[in-house]
Batch of 2 targets.
Target 1
Amino acid sequence: MVERLKKAFGDDLRSNFILLAIIAVIYPAIYAISPGWGIVLGHGITWIIALLGFNLLFGYTGLLSFGHALFLGIGAYTAGFMYKYLGINSIELHILGSILSSAVVALAIGLVVVRYTRIFFAIFMLAIAQVFWSLYYKFYWITGGTDGIKMARFSILGISLEHLDFTTYHHIYFYFTTFLTTILIYLMWRIVNSPFGLTLKAIRDNEVRAKFIGIDIYKMRLYAFIISAIYAGITGALVANHHRLVTPDIAYWTTSGKVVFATLLGGTRIFIGPLIGSFIFHVIESFAMRFIYWQLIMGAFIIAIVILMPGGIAQILRTFVESIRHSGRIGG
Amino acid sequence: MEILKLVNLKKYFGGVRALDGISTTLHEGEVVTIIGPNGAGKTTLINTISGYVFPDSGRIIYMNEDITKSTPIERVNKGIVRSFQLVNTFDKLTVYENILVSLISSRKYQNKMTKTLDSYTDILEEAESILKLFELGDKADNLITSISYGDRKLVDVAISFALNPKLIMLDEPTSGVATKDKDDIMKKILEAIMKTGVTAMIIEHDMDIVFRYGKRVMVMHQGKIIADGGVEEIRKDEEIKKILLGGVYA
Amino acid sequence: MIELGEVVVRIYNIFFGTSVLFLIAVGLNLIYGVMRIVNLTHPAFFTLGCYTVAGLGVGIVISLLGTSLTPLLIIPPLIAALIVVIASLIVFPLFIYMSGKGDEVQLLVTYGLLLIFEDVFRLIWGVEPLRASQAYEMAGSLIVGEYLIPVYNIYVILSALILVLLLWLLLFKTKIGILIRASSMDIEMTAALGADVKKVLLVTVLLAGFLAGLGGGLYLPSASVMLGMSVELLVLAFVVVVIGGLGSFLGSFVGSFIVSVLRTITLMLFPELELALIYIVAILILTFKPEGLGGGRKW
């Protein structure tokens, strides 16, 4: 009975945790060889969270948002404002604050936008995100405009990290984020595999029938939207602390593009997709950044993925792993 | 006990009289087959009872309660469930998950997001018994799009069954199914109806199927019920045969 | 008390805005109408038109014909339209691929193209805003009370009117126009009747590109073009088609007009919230009249 719920590679927790563990183990070595690549891994681990949220919305609920940067911006500016106006530099409080603010904003916006799907949802989100982005510019006396908000090093568990050397400081950031990401992956996994999660997939596949078996599709979508926003908000707060700078760029439409691209690259509808996508994305990005026309590459990749490998890298890996398992079974 | 009573239902679409004074009564556990030529108003009747269409006049009484103005979802919650003429399933899910979704909705579990499905053994067990009821057990783990059309029809009906209905309405459950499979599908559906004791209203075009499996048969023509009785009685009526042949085969 | 001069200027700004938005929205609606694709790349074609005039067209005209007004009014927009038609031709195979695919695919592919175009602009023309206002300045201004009305913008409005007329003639009086309209009603039926549907699709995409390029070319001398403009225009053009109704020719006009009115009012009263207020109106319209104010009619 429960066997029917068994997960294929990538949808199970084990493959996710193994990948996380590998990253956590090799990180110090990579950092030791090249701090630059260590920081790239730091970006990777940070963005997984936002991508998980995006995948919940796109992969599992069928709502494609071109404005996910909205919530990254909310999270980042929440952390920035907490530091600038309240003098708070505790990363835990930043995260709590951004959870709260992104949930509130998502509730207000979600009540309207989840009534629309497809093109309308996608563009409404793009538009709303652009509105917020322009507000960060226009209210420069609050937000610091293009100069943004510079932040001090965060403190953790009430301990200041100001006196540490950068390497130790970054290690702390990395492992704190890994810890947080692990918990959030676990929570998201439960959400996706809960009755709620299956209901979302049903709404994605057939909104009409879902309605007619008695599901309140708007309410379900709203919940998914809020959860997704919270995940993005957390990444926003982490990015603010990682870069120690908050500028309107985090809320710009190209940031939304980055979220869309990285998730597609990893694979939507497969749980491990965001995890893989985040790392591969940041590796590609750090190569491509040397080449200034990065957006061009990203755009071309999006088109190529959609046409040639709609399941992303995770799907390719799954096919590979399943074929090994299968041949193993025949051999044994 | 009376489960459904229709009182003089009327529904006009422009000049077309889709329902022209329908009055009838269904008793608990009864299985009624509705036949009639295209455009007789059969689907409109189901649409009206399930709340997709509101009648111009007349009343729908369900378990002694007037539901003429209730919304489709309210009616689903009261136990009035329908299936559609075309297969209407959740296409990226497995057969098993399709049925689970329906059970989740029926038990109001859709808000539960902190525990994974394997801890809800009640619905898992029920899903197994529904699979068994429709003999879909061996196909349970297949994607719904990978099984035959006839089986998808069965899953569609199973989704409706999973809502634990008191009154189920099936709109041509064998339409689009290959002729050789029709018998099999209909037999499974009727067995499920018998076993669960649910009251059922089935629209069917295929006369062979109707005469083989039907008990009470209702004949509709131009928005009216022109005959209502046992299979034998209807089969012998020459007038009805003429109307049906004219409608179906002309 | 608002003076007469101000009223005239505002009204005239509304007409100018309507003309520009219409030239974008009508192409968006043409492609949606015929191919059922919401082409997120479309505003990038308008931007490409702007860049072409600023970075190429005006230069060519001045070096060949000197700085004289008439050629500057006419030739650069046509060069822009030509370049955009060529760009449309290049991406056309993707449109064939997308037609009939799910809207997820369409959204992602056209979004990818939008990213590519924005970076191509940067690659060719750099990050600084570009201007080419020779024609705008040479055309001079009319004085109304204390206000100036640029003559160039009147030229844009008149050009848009002429384009509307030509477009109408094309769609309603020529064979290809009738085929385009027929395809937008029922493309399979049109194919079944023996029409070369692929040709109809090609003409539609090129026509939409032509209008966007020409629009951008006409618009540029009165403003400047910069990176990110495609997205800003996308967001505005989308409101236009939502208000007017997706795929509606008349709706393109109604939507452009309403959005221009809204922009003029909000820019006067709450400049910071311009976009937000326009979107609130769009959402209200979508809620109460989902088929848009074009009355749900196709043409």
Target 2
Amino acid sequence: MSVTSLLSISLGAILVNNFIFSQFLGCCPFLGVSKKLDTAVGMGVAVTFVMGLASAITWLVNQYILIRFNLLYMQTVVFILVIAALVQFIEMFLQKSMPTLYTALGIYLPLITTNCAVLGVALLNIQSNYNFIESVVYGITGGLGFLLAIVLFASVRERNVFAECPKCFEGFPIALITAGLMALSFMGFSGLSAWG
Amino acid sequence: MNNILAAVLVLGIMGGVFGLILAIASKVFAVKSDPRLPEILEHLAGANCGGCGYAGCSDCAAHILDGTAPVSACAPAGAEGAAAIAGIMGVAVESGVRKVAFVRCNGGSNAKKRYEYEGVRDCIGASKIAGGPLECEFGCLGMGSCAAACKFDAMHIGPGGAAVVDSEKCTACMACAAACPRHLITAVPYDKHVRVACSNRNKGKAAMSVCAVSCIGCGLCEKNCPFGAIHVTDGVAVVDYDKCRGCKICTKVCPRDAISPAASKEEKEKYRAAQKAQAEKKAQAAAAAQSAQPQDR
């Protein structure tokens, strides 16, 4: 593990293998909570937060429980359990100790409980054989990639409202087309791997 | 077999541990919230319309609980909602009359156009270009910004081209009033039907030349109102709803049909004939009294 490998993981998670635009994970909140820029930012920050924490905890669970008891085939179920409990716990903790952050994250925190991007990052960490630090970095930067994608998308959608488009495409259809075009444009990053 | 046992045990123990942690956490991190908060929230409209001035219904409920907002802060919840919240809070409710929004313009196709506007369908956008597409600087632009702001489907662009409120659906949250760049929308009592549908503050010719149904500030309504309930202020007629009894005489004398509900021609004729007959009767009576006077002496 070196700084360059961490940088390469970060760059990959944010741009090249963006969770939404190239892995198509977490599309549900991406389409659902992107009507306004400020709610999109709230969602993105909450996802980043939870993905980072979930990466850390699930890596530990995998390393010290699943591998020891030879239960790797139970990964998905266990990770769902861990993430759901973790999010609930964080919510209670924040409500008590950081009410301002709690109100800022608001409804988005419980929404993330079963988000596939969070489960995805946990499983991908194991698949890619990352160590603990790499896992955490991958989780946080993956969340930042989600934040980038949802903020860009929300900005475009806010402008789309005022754009003239054919009646049959108004509203959700044009949002889906926009998402598709943005995914295409993110394919432009696919060759980017400066650090190997 | 061993595998299954291990899986069941590990998952069972993990589930139990997480459950225990959460149970402890819910006690340790318990936040004391006022039990009245959800009760108040239940009686608010729940549309998150923002008409109260707070960020959504739960914020409004929190402010009501603090006492920084009145129990009647939620206009869409209406008098019943206010009464229920007052019951929860243990205070007396200020009596509220049901109000609805009203667009003080009936221009639309009656108003003269300065130019054809073909930009973004948005009132603020339209009003920014050379003072708006209408000759009348007070008229409804009809782009529907208010209709877009309405969460209750109570606001529509009417067939005449100006915005019209559906009084049955309107909850007087006044989100539309905030969206109107011309400030045409006000709250009026639901059960008072006489409303001045114009806000043109110019007088006489200046108001007459821009629209077929503009208030020109002539003051005929003021002179004819038997209750002193309508006055020309700043060049436009304004109804005083404390005094108005809904006789609709003002709508019949208005030469510009600017007061809604606009009276038909027949109604106007009838009213004028009645006025004339009454005046003649009065004159006759006066003449009779005059001729009768000398005999009394």
